[in-house]
């Protein structure tokens, strides 16, 4: 900013530098999403192509210089492009409905940590944030699935469907779906029920390596603990030539020399502690 007699106004600015050694989370919400989905004829209650498109956009964010942790990292060399620096970039992302959350590691120094953003000082709070978002995804999807079943198959108006569901609990919605429309909610695609988790392939590979090592050692205490394989709780999605990679697939060509660590999209249970203790999330506490 050029110096001028009006420069005094900057004295009113507050320091917006974020606390060091905290997890940083940015959540992007859709604006005017209802009108947007109507204008583009989205399938109700879930449009798989729109969700895949949103995942593809989020993948681009993770694979950017910001996502890989290059921005603000003076020690990173161009020759190492393609690697993802631990805890300096985006370590985890989660999307559902019309929103996506991006989590930065404790050591992130992008833009000198100047931002307005959600900060979590403890790993427990960090976990609880993503558990909260996934619980929200489940509640909303169960409601929407039941609502649109009433409208599309039950021939109820939208106002009548809202009235039918007023005051109902989860078990009531499951009953409506199964008894009236022969829909078993448990058979719905995992991406609809759990949302999308974007995670670096190296975390999944480390998990597989650890599990193989423990399996080879029958005396290992960890061998007695249940652990979730990276591919579990995942559902393959319909693919087209324009669809982004889906569950458990890497987003880059395996022969690419430029990409060492790629992004994987999985649909797993974040609410149970297992994902954070013996699964991929256990390595995010650093």
From TrEMBL:
Residue span(s) of domain Thg1 C-terminal: 125-226
Ranges annotated as biased composition (Low complexity): 227-242
Top-level taxonomic group: Eukaryota
Protein name: tRNA(His) guanylyltransferase
Enzyme class, broadest EC rank: transferase
Pfam families: Thg1, Thg1C
InterPro entries: Thg1_C_dom (IPR025845), tRNAHis_GuaTrfase_cat (IPR024956), tRNAHis_GuaTrfase_Thg1 (IPR007537), tRNAHis_GuaTrfase_Thg1_sf (IPR038469)
E.C. numbers: 2.7.7.79
Domain tRNAHis guanylyltransferase catalytic: 7-64
Disordered, as annotated region: 214-259
Biased composition (Polar residues): 214-226, 243-254
Key words of the record: GTP-binding, Magnesium, Metal-binding, Nucleotide-binding, Nucleotidyltransferase, Transferase, tRNA processing
Cofactor entry: Mg(2+)
Organism, scientific name: Puccinia graminis f. sp. tritici
Gene3D superfamilies the UniProt entry points to: 3.30.70.3000
Family according to the record: Belongs to the tRNA(His) guanylyltransferase family.
PANTHER family: TRNA(HIS) GUANYLYLTRANSFERASE-RELATED
A biological-process GO annotation: tRNA modification
């Amino acid at each position: 900013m050029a110096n001028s007699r009006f420069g005094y106004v900057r004295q009113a600015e507050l320091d917006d530098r974020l606390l060091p050694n905290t997890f940083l989370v940015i959540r992007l919400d859709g604006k005017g999403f209802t009108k947007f989905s109507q204008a583009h004829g989205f399938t109700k209650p879930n449009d798989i192509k729109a969700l895949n498109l949103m995942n593809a956009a989020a993948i681009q964010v993770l694979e950017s210089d910001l996502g890989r942790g290059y921005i603000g990292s003076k020690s990173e060399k161009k020759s190492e492009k393609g690697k993802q620096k631990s805890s300096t970039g985006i370590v985890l992302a989660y999307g559902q409905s019309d929103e996506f959350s991006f989590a930065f590691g404790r050591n992130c120094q992008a833009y000198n940590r100047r931002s307005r953003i959600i900060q979590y000082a403890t790993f427990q709070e960090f976990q609880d944030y993503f558990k909260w978002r996934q619980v929200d995804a489940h509640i909303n999807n169960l409601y929407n699935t039941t609502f649109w079943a009433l409208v599309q198959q039950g021939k109820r108006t939208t106002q009548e469907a809202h009235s039918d569901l007023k005051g109902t609990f989860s078990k009531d919605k499951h009953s409506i779906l199964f008894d009236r429309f022969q829909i078993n909610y448990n058979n719905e695609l995992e991406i609809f029920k759990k949302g999308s988790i974007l995670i670096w392939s190296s975390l999944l590979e480390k998990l597989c390596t650890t599990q193989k090592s423990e399996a080879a050692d029958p005396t290992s205490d960890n061998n007695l603990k249940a652990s979730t394989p990276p591919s579990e709780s995942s559902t393959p999605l319909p693919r087209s030539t324009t669809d982004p990679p889906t569950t458990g697939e890497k987003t880059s060509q395996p022969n690419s020399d430029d990409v060492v660590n790629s992004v994987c999209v999985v649909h797993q249970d974040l609410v149970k502690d297992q994902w954070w203790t013996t699964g991929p999330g256990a390595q995010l506490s650093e």
